[in-house]
């Protein structure tokens, strides 16, 4: 992100976005802290949860990024029929509702899953998906597509003219072009995934395997749900904030902008093809790992689609409205913070990743309860919270593109008097269309599948599709719940695809 405030960009929206993020993160945390009764420090179980959280986050982020580099390079170098659709499809695991995706992973890697059935058939012992290995596997499943998209975006940002020049001079493309880009893109990508894994809840709840595999977020849930110990929950939330903000500040200092410069927006042609078989093997293996669990979800959900109750369709409509508003608000905040720039705005932009959704929901409940019935504000609060929680991903996609536009055209725009909203409308928006569409689709899809704050606020008349699905599961209507899950997956992917396709229209992506 830019290192200083940009005089040519309007500053008011950035301060408004920053204020909203601070209210939803630090403000709700303060509400919980003020109501808490502090009884002591961290227990031994809390320290064990902190150690496990950091370990699984490091492993998950490291494996995701290491695997994403060769896959993104293969996609950047190869052109084949269906490539654009495959790139979009590879993003599906990240936008899946977590519990739905976990069901898909269990269908493949669980005790009675496809993999263990194959092991039993050939006489090998079964493998367990529960514990550290299960948590890391699930996090890689979710975050590998995100890492691929971020790193692929870096590869596609290298101008075609640089590859032409390298080919003419027979220069090493990897050392001169690809390594500087990776040095700029990989640390921040690692940070985003690390922060996602630090705040993991549903994965640890379903695959953690007991007290020895408990994350900080799960410990916060236990303190709130079972003990209603606001003091312990607030203390753990403060620790979580410290871990995430410390990591964010460290990586922000280590991450630089890739100085590849600007080009003429020509289609990139590669002459350093290498071995096509290796590239296609990486692409095929990754596609199988990511798409087979999704296929299992579809197989289980199709039979009951025709028998879903009317309440599911009403919940679906509410989910679509919430997701659309959340996506618009998210990209507006991301653009505002990106154009303002500076370390303060960078830290504020990643604060939602450091926040606990459970603490945000509890804090919002404590703030609203004295003045109104919290269920009456369920949908508006959910829109705001979903927008803020998707903000770090949108900011990571938009920030480098906005910085590049400012570096390339900022002085020219200032000399011509193209500033303020004219600068945004005429220069910034047309040149950040691809990451803007990706960010909007990601925010909409994440909001579609969210089951956080809405569960603390909503009554029957405010339930969204994820909440309706979980209530069906609680009533043991598993076939209907599976069909609702399939509908939720389809709508999440559709919203992401529509926005992402709009962004990449008439562009080689």
Structural class given helices, strands, pairing? Answer: mainly alpha
Largest sheet at a glance?
none
Total individual domains: 2
CATH class of the largest domain: Mainly Alpha
What fold name stands as the CATH topology of the largest domain?
Answer: MetI-like fold
Q: How much β-strand is present in the residues?
A: under 5%
Globally, the shape reads globular
CATH architecture descriptor text of the largest domain: Orthogonal Bundle
- Ranges where pLDDT stays below 50 over 5 or more residues in a row are 1-6, 258-267
The average pLDDT score comes to: 78
| Terminal CA distance | 22 Å
Helical percentage: over 70%
Q: What's the tally of helices?
A: 22
Helix-strand pattern, N to C?
Answer: HHHHHHHHHHHHHHHHHHHHHH
Q: Determine Rg (CA atoms, Å).
A: 23 Å
The quaternary organization reads as single chain
* CATH H-level superfamily of the largest domain: MetI-like
Number of distinct beta strands: 0
In short, what is this structure?
It is built from 22 helices and no strands. By secondary structure, the chain is mostly helical. The protein has 2 domains: 1-35 and 308-509, MetI-like fold; 46-300, MetI-like (MetI-like fold, Orthogonal Bundle).
Labels describing this entry:
single chain; about 500 residues; mainly alpha; MetI-like fold; 2 domains; 22 helices
